[in-house]
Specification:
This protein has about 120 residues and is mostly beta strands. Among the domains are: about 5-45; about 45-85, no CATH class. It contains no helices and 8 strands. A 5-stranded antiparallel β-sheet has the order 1-2-3-4-5, with no helix packed on it. Strands 6-7-8 form a 3-stranded antiparallel β-sheet, with no helix packed on it. A hairpin with a 6-residue loop joins strand 1 (about 5-10) and strand 2. It starts with 6 loop residues before the first strand and ends in a 42-residue tail after the last strand.
């Protein structure tokens, strides 16, 4: 079996192999055909999101953004699925509905007789 050759830093566990970058034995990046697999915890100092992102109802992409003035963090996604438990301390729902024609909202009802009026 052929031994893998690597480039390393003296007195450090950091080393570079083909398609692998090791920071130590348990924290490393592995290059895949469609991206990068990250081993170890990830901590982000700034925002994270898709390559293109714009917020709002007609926006696109996704983002987790920290407001520099307030320190509040907001996340924008197209869909969100929660499988187990979700805790919400304040919920604000903003729904926009559009109709191109008649829209009839009423209580449930039924009719027994229809009479034409001329």
């Amino acid at each position: 079996m052929k031994e893998k050759k690597s480039i390393g830093i003296a007195d450090s566990k950091t080393r570079l192999l083909p398609n692998e970058l090791f920071f130590d034995d348990s924290i490393y990046w592995l290059a895949l055909d469609n991206g990068v697999k990250h081993y170890g915890n990830a901590y982000f100092v700034n925002d994270i999101g898709s390559v293109t992102f714009s917020s709002g109802f007609a926006g696109n992409g996704w983002g987790i953004i920290q407001n520099k003035l307030t320190g509040n963090t907001s996340a924008t996604f197209d869909d969100l699925t929660i499988r187990k438990k979700m805790r919400i301390y304040e919920l604000e729902v903003q729904k926009q509905s559009v109709t191109n024609g008649s829209w009839w909202v009423s209580d449930a009802c039924s009719g027994d007789l229809v009479e034409e009026i001329s």
